[in-house]
Design a protein that fits this description.
The complex is a heterodimer of chains A (173) and B (170). Chain A is mostly helical and 173 residues long. Chain A has 5 helices and no strands. Helix content of chain A is 69%, strand content 0%. The longest helix of chain A has 40 residues. Chain B has 170 residues and is an all-alpha fold. Chain B has one domain. Chain B contains 6 helices and 2 strands, in the order ααββαααα. The chains are: A mainly alpha (173), B mainly alpha (170). At the A-B interface, α3 and α4 of A face α2, β2, α3, α4 and α6 of B.
Chain lengths: 173, 170
Amino acid sequence: MENPKPGMFVPALIGGAVAGVLSGIPLLNCLCCLWIIGGAMLASYILSKNSLVALTAGDGAIVGIFTGIVAAVIDAIISIPLAAINREFIMSIMEKIGEYADEMPAGWETWLEGGGAATTFSMQMIGLLISAVVFAVLGALGGIIGISLFGKKAPPQDKGATDVVKDADNSKS
Amino acid sequence: MKKRSTILAVYLFSMIGIFIWLGIIFLAPYLRYHNSGWNVLFYSILSPVCHQIPSRSFFLFGYPLAVCGRCLGIYFGFIIGTLMYPLVKGLSNTTFPKTKTFILFSLPIIFDTLGNFLRIWMTPNLPRFIIGFLWGLIFPFYFIPGITDFFLTSVIKKRNRSDKHLEIET
């Protein structure tokens, strides 16, 4: 028998690719976790569009988790060549806001000097693992929101079915 | 009863999770202030989900928090939303908010993000925090029922599978 629920792999791959690429590109990555939630919502939208039946929030959570994992991998791959550009971008922002330096605590300008040093392979793998977990949680949230917004609403079949059974019983008597 | 206990478990785990999350955010500058090497790990955990630009972050002990003002607002909103959840919906209701409500809570962050992104204006950190807070407030009303549904469906699927096995054996 044909499964009325479509596969989750393709929607998760599309949503994850979009979220991963956008959260890895300098300037665009200023939107923080919004891309992951947005990517998971996109995956839910694609999933519900291809589905013949109403999907549950659990389906949204699963596709969101997969989207988050895909996004974490793609973000990690993209971040390697873009790390230097990313750092330059942040430095340029820091320079631009230098005029407000009076309002900032002392020593803020040296803050970036401490970051970005740990780029060994093992650290990158740990980073990927952590981001996969974090993105999966955010993806689950986005997937659930996506299903609630775009998912097909289940028709009130239960009530109808009960009524039919009741009617059948009445006709026998 | 099963649904109620599942939603209660999801609720408690969400609450514990978000408190740990906020703990990481606030511990990072504290550890850096005390020259502990662990601060790198704490900042790194949150770096994939936030740009961590110091000018857009609140400071503690002379160092920026591990997330920006907007993200901090989202997480604080999540905590308050989680606290409000049993009062607003009760611990047996797994329906989602209306689409209109989601749009209403999302409009400020969309508007503000677009304005900042297109460089029409630059929002200071406190309004960013408030806008993020508003958005985060609605998240538990999706997350808690959604994850509850996820666990309930997987339990039903497992039960159906074991029932089929029993039928085949008999």
